[in-house]
Design goal:
By secondary structure, this protein is of the alpha/beta class. A 4-stranded parallel sheet has the order 2-1-3-4, with helices on both faces. Strands 6-5-7-8 form a 4-stranded parallel sheet, sandwiched between helices. Helix 3 links the parallel strand 3 and strand 4. Helix 2 packs parallel to helix 3. Bifunctional serine/threonine kinase and phosphorylase involved in the regulation of the phosphoenolpyruvate synthase (PEPS) by catalyzing its phosphorylation/dephosphorylation.
Length: 276
């Protein structure tokens, strides 16, 4: 079975795409051709999109599915009249919420991702710059300025997790890769130990690590399963000695790992750094 899916919005479409993907993930037996359609903010563009939806219907033999965040009722009416299954993601929530609050909605498009709080936007940019400048342990002396520090072996997911926490939550995340020199010494540098109270460790299954490293350096000693098993075993010994929270990235997404880290941050009064 194949169906075409459109993520449609008057603005960026990020909300429609994010929620739409979450809903589609429940139907893994269906093949979805996903089409991203932001800035459908005129009746002319909406009409043109209905023509595309009709072509998709004839090609697939089933109505295309439309996930939309469309506050303009005139444009929404055009899309609903097209040959599609239309799901308005705001419709079922805005009016009931308005009734509860006793305040009418603004019905302005793009507010979900607009810079409505300049100070928080500035903090996010600062956090992104910090994460990039303190990636891969290049400035261990800067760990004291971080909100949190991720440690783990090479290719265990530290960099993408750091950047995700910076971009989405304005957290100054640094990361430190455990190196061969650290393994030979059997310990981590003093600057890393000093950040232990705000440290989180990432581990990964050796087979998964082997597959990831093979993509980067195929056939190398660095990517060998023996080396991966060795690195993970010694790193986990370090994590236990340091008594830091450890998360397995083998089968968890960046979002899932980040959510667990945030929960730990919020539950620790000494680390009251959550900035959202």
């Amino acid at each position: 079975m194949k169906r075409t899916v459109y993520f449609v919005s008057e603005s960026t479409g990020i909300t429609a795409e994010t929620l739409g993907h979450s809903l589609l993930s429940q139907f893994d037996t269906v093949e979805f051709e996903q089409v991203y359609m932001p800035y459908i903010n005129t009746e002319l563009r909406a009409t043109a999109l209905t023509h595309r939806m009709h072509e998709a219907f004839e090609r697939d033999g089933g109505r295309p599915i439309v996930f939309a965040t469309m506050l303009n009722q005139d444009i929404a009416a055009i899309l609903k009249a097209g040959n599609c299954y239309y799901l308005e993601l705001f419709e079922g929530f805005v009016e009931p919420l308005s009734a509860e609050l006793g305040v009418p909605p603004s019905r302005e498009s793009g507010r979900s991702h607009a810079i409505t709080k300049p100070s928080y936007y500035t903090k996010r940019i600062d956090a992104i710059n910090f994460a990039m400048a303190n990636d891969d342990g290049v400035r261990p002396d800067n760990l004291k300025h971080a909100d949190l520090v991720l440690v783990g072996v090479s290719r265990s997911g530290k960099t993408p997790t750091s950047l995700y926490l910076a971009m989405h939550y304005g957290l100054r995340a640094a990361n430190y890769p455990i190196t061969e020199e650290d393994f030979e010494k059997g310990d981590l540098p003093a600057e890393v130990w000093s950040a232990r109270e705000k440290m989180f460790a990432l581990t990964i299954d050796p087979q998964r690590l082997h597959a990831i490293r093979e993509e980067r350096r195929p056939g190398s000693e660095y990517a060998s399963i023996r080396r991966c098993q060795h690195d993970i075993r010694l790193a986990q010994t370090m994590f236990r000695r340091m008594e830091v929270p450890t998360f397995d990235t083998t089968n968890q997404s960046i979002e899932e790992i980040s959510a667990q880290i945030l929960r730990n941050l919020k539950s620790n009064p000494a680390l009251a750094v959550h900035r959202s």
